[in-house]
Amino acid sequence: MGTAVGTAAAEQPAGVFTRPPYSTDGAWKRTVFRDLIVSLTEHHRAGCPPYRRVLDAMRFTPGPEVELEEVPFLPAGLFKRLTLVSVPRSERDRVLTSSGTGGRNVSRVVLDRTTALLQMRALATIVTGVLGTSRLPLLVVDCPRVTEIPGRAVAVLGFSMFGSGRTFALTDDLRPDLAAINAFLDRTAGGPFLVFGMTSIIWRHLLTPLRERGTRLDLAGATVIHGGGWKSLAGVGDGDFRKAALELTGARRVIDYYGMAEQAGSVFLQCPEGFLHCSTFSEVFTRRPRDFLPCAYGEPGILQTLSVLPRSYPGHSLLTEDEGVVFGEDDCRCGRRGRYFVVTRRLPAAEAKGCGDVR
Amino acid sequence: MSGDGFPAAAGLRLIVGGLPGGGLPARPVFHEEVVGFLDALSGALLEGDVRRHPDVTAFALWCRRAAVETWRARFGDGTRCLGRGLVFHVCPANVPLVFAYSLAAGLLAGNANVVRLPSREFPEVAHLCERLGELLASPEHRALSGYVTCVRYEADAAECTRALSDRCDVRVVWGGDDTVAAVRAVPLPAGAQELVFPDRRSLAVVDAGAWLACRDRTRHVRGFHTDGYAAGQRACSSPLLVVWLGDEVEEARASFWSLLGELVAAGRQGASVDAVRGLEYACSLAARGRASAVSPRRDGIGRVWCDEPAPDLLDRHPGGGVFVETRVKRLADIVPLLDRKVQTLSYFGVPPDELADLLLDAGPRGVCRVVPLGRALDFSLIWDGHDLIRALSRRIDVVPEVNVR
Description:
- The structure holds two protein chains of two kinds.
- Chain A is built from nine helices and 14 strands.
- By secondary structure, chain A is α/β, with parallel strands linked by helices.
- By secondary structure, chain B is of the alpha/beta class.
- Chain B has 13 helices and 17 strands.
- The interface between A and B is large, with 38 and 71 residues.
């Protein structure tokens, strides 16, 4: 352990799938996980010339002595400017896109079959670790044509793996489809089921209309998983969301997730204590804006996320566009191992620039 | 809302003064009433805590009588020069106090002024507007009533821009390029002039040998810190690129950036967004093979070294404390960098006359200011190559009768 640097490790992240998703501690992260990340860095350095040029410009050479927090991170926004790929054209399978902030610039992430498969398996490992392995009936809070909307489609299709008999809760013009919802609830007959949607879609197109109409739904049997939409919901916090969900639908088990198209699969799920957790597949650091040095626990900073999954593009260590706070490692009261954190805010868009230069 | 003949425009809010009626006389340039008013404004602004808004204090010092007198001397012969009438100023949000300098120039040139304040609200703008309003209401400055109006309206309210443009004799538009394009789409009366200040960017030239020989490096670094950080590196005269000259470049760089780092580190932490956008910019240059060395962030400074500099390197520069560096063998090698977007050239250890001669000789499209390190953000009545007082006034050519005997 600790010296297995080379492409072998990059090709064999399979070991991480044999462990429960929240079973690995800090010592494991700093050895086995570190080795996986360092060898991924070498893999991308060899396969992606633009990435190699960035590492060279930063004077970074991967090696066994490198600590996890020393591995360089690319800003996630770079995938909006450049298409970065580490595998030959023949192995490229498809391109994931995400709208990103404001939707003007789109991230382009190139997947090969291996990476796509790793992402699916990781997501399955993380989600079944929380939900169990039996497939529950799935209510997607979105419209049927969501599968054609880039960004949203990725998340909905990914989570659809965990449900059976998928039902869409909204009509194509994004209004609650009460007939479809009630038919779904009749079928579940009081048993447990899964509700999935983007945070902003659930808030705007389900909870808000319910409140306006004075209608309630009975989703008490649901596990609600939502994420990915806070940036367009300024002023609505996790607490507001939970309160509204409880009042209007009776849902008590509400789980936020944090993830991004640039690191699909290795999502961070919220624990019952309200913290997002790193899994076996991921690690998180917060960085100070002054020098990018790691923050102390409790200190807000820019979130850096690491993932052992990306093989076809150099996205295994990214500086996100979010600020957050890491509170600790291995000692969350929920019992899960690994680091736990919250996302506090999305970085604002670039400031106005222009001429007019006086003081 | 409508004054004498001023068409009402929905969404136009008066912040200082009323909309000027027609028929206000133009004044001679540097008129005593104006100089006295600006001096009184300076006094009022310096009464409070001068550290609270350093940019307001800088403006107050700039518009004192003594300072204005030096501008008058630089202007030269002002005989029979008077204002054009009404100047409409469209002011930017990147540097909040541009409006004050633009207004002062309009007044000194002898005009009535309508200033469109940036739509974002800044405390320093509010502070200055309050003092302006108080002074204009006082009996001593009654003569200037009607000459100073500040308004605010939403950026997309073309109707307001149209109403104000219809009546003005000169329109002054401070960029960015998008603002200039949007305002230019609104027609002006045939007889009106327009003065535009589009996006520009700036660079510094530092002679490495002179830097290492300098005994007062701290003072000069403080000046560069002001240039680069006082407006978040978002003013168009803030240096984005540092060009090193000479042989001992590595040693000089080490000294320069470590001294600057001490100053930046002593200040605020810096915004996350600046750090992230700076890294994005640096990585995108490195990934494309345009930068050979990147120092992502140290002491609040991001640095990008480019062996083969070109003007387009600065195209997507985000501001916020990221410096592109390069070296040239001879001073003349900077010329290819001076495209039409370059505004200010700050210098250290290079004789400014030599720079001026080089510009006159090589004739690049860019550069209209050459200033020592630390003076990049100083507002001058010669801006972007325009003599503002001349551009905002007219000279009456009086031809004497030929004496035929």
